[in-house]
Model the fold of this input.
Amino acid sequence: MILFPPSKLNLGLQITAKRSDGYHNLQTVFYQFPLKDVLEILKDDSLDHGTCKFSSTGLFLPAGQNLCEKAYFLLHKDFNLPGVKIFLHKIIPMGAGLGGGSSDATYTLRLLNSLFDLKISSNKLMDYALELGSDCPLFIHDYPQYATSRGEVLEEISVDLKGKYLLIINPNIHISTKDAFAEIVASKTEPCKHIVLQELSTWKESLSNDFEDSVFPKHPVLKELKTKLYELGALYASMSGSGSTMFALFDKEVYIYVFPKEYFIWQTQL
Done:
């Protein structure tokens, strides 16, 4: 079976408080879009139960157990899964604020649930996903969601960007999520779920990502990219997550060759 794990954007991201457990409370609107990896899982009768063979192509993955493998072993504890081979073709940049690893892990749960007819409910799948990472539960469903707490308390929100052009730019900078959170300052702003329901033309002045305040001084190129995106006519431009991907929404297709060719650049009409 094959599935195509998508990416996510953060439409606004505010850190509202640091928690006693070391995590942070936040609010954001997650919006999935069709920059996708390719995930295939095959049952392999030559392998013992509880055996997972993982391989990948595309972007280089660091050594160590992949989140797809962790997802397999998480379900194996409760369901004694047959042996499988997992193939991942990696397209979504890593350490980029696009949720690619979280998406791959969650889609592994979804695919295993279907492949072996485990009959795990969506709510239970979300519990498993949360064990893999705070961003993982959002990929159980395919619609925009407003997130609070660590990002795992989710509610559906009606955000329609159909017809807009989305431009994604990643300057090949890896930003540690842990380091980004270490320097974040909690803010008190209007809930982003209210802002994204307003006209897109109002987002530039009202919708923000708190991580930009701490990340931009360390990586000035990201601030320069944001300025350039607005010069090109973006209706809204922002960093996604803790970076380093910048994204922008336009009314029309953009001439992307004004950006360095070594950057990861991707554009689509939503």
User: Anything to note?
Assistant: Residues 165-269 form a domain with the Alpha-Beta Plaits fold (CATH 3.30.70.890). The two ends are 26 Å apart (CA to CA). Helices lie at 67-79, 100-115, 122-132, 177-182, 192-195, 203-206, 211-215, 220-231. The first strand starts at residue 2 and ends at 3.
